[in-house]
Structure formats: C-alpha cells, structure tokens
Amino acid sequence: MESLEQYINKHHKSEEKRVDLVTYLYHLMDKYGMDAPTLYKKANITKQSYSSIISNKCIPSLNTLIKIVFALKADTHECKYLLKKAGYTLASSSTYALIIRYCIENKIYDLATLNEYLMKYDYDDNIVE
C-alpha cells in the first residue's frame, strides 16, 4: 500500500492548477516580460480595474480577461487556465468562444480583428472593448 504522502503527490494537481488567478497572472506577466502599467495599457483597462483584480476585490469580467490574454499574447493553454481561475471557459458549444479561441490559436491578437469577427457572426453585444 502506498503512503499518504505518495498518494497526495501522485494525485496533486500541477502548480499551474493550484495557484490562484492573481498568482497565475503574475506568472504570465513574468513569462512575457510585461510590467503592470504596460499590461493594463495594452489591455485597455484602467489602472483601477487592474488594481481591483490584483487585490482580489473583484472577479474580472470575461471581457477584461480576454483583453489581458490578447495583451499578453498568451497561448490557448494559458488562456484556458487564466479564464478557469476566474470561473470562465471558452466552450466548444459557443460560436462566440470559438471565435476567441480561433484568434488565440492563430495568434491573431488584434482586438479590432476579433471584434470584426464577432460582428460578422452577430455578436455585436459581446464586442471586446
């Protein structure tokens, strides 16, 4: 029989899955060499919104997280984990989500292009601004 420690180590989720949203966001910022002012300016979010996210005062909207993903030019895997940590997912059953995933998988990180695709499929209410 394996020990409790062996069992825990065998079934423990990876570090990436165990950390919270803020810790994972900092990890991505370090990975992509982006400081806070650069990130919130590139993501077109206010300093106050960024500060609220970092201080865990609020769960950011899906729209805000998508802008952060695009600003970082994060890959599909990183996007999935960042969104999951805030309780979101880009489900295959949603055309809206598939459009976002298409852009990320094809390294199309221009929000104007994303919004063009969303409008083409009548997602005018979901424009990422």
Layout of helices and strands:
Layout: H1 4-11, H2 15-18, H3 21-31, H4 36-42, H5 47-54, H6 62-72, H7 76-85, H8 95-105, H9 111-120
Helix pairs in contact: 3-7, 6-7
Structure description:
The chain is mainly α and 129 residues long. It has one domain (15-126). The protein has helices at 4-11, 15-18, 21-31, 36-42, 47-54, 62-72, 76-85, 95-105, 111-120. The chain starts with a helix and ends in a 9-residue tail after the last helix. The model has no long low-confidence stretch (mean pLDDT 91).
Separation, N- and C-terminal Cα atoms: 55 Å
What is the number of beta strands? 0
**Helix-strand pattern, N to C?**
HHHHHHHHH
Number of helices: 9
Q: Beta-sheet strand percentage?
A: under 5%
Structural class, judged by helices and strands? mainly alpha
Helix content: 55-70%
Largest sheet: none
The averaged pLDDT comes out at 91
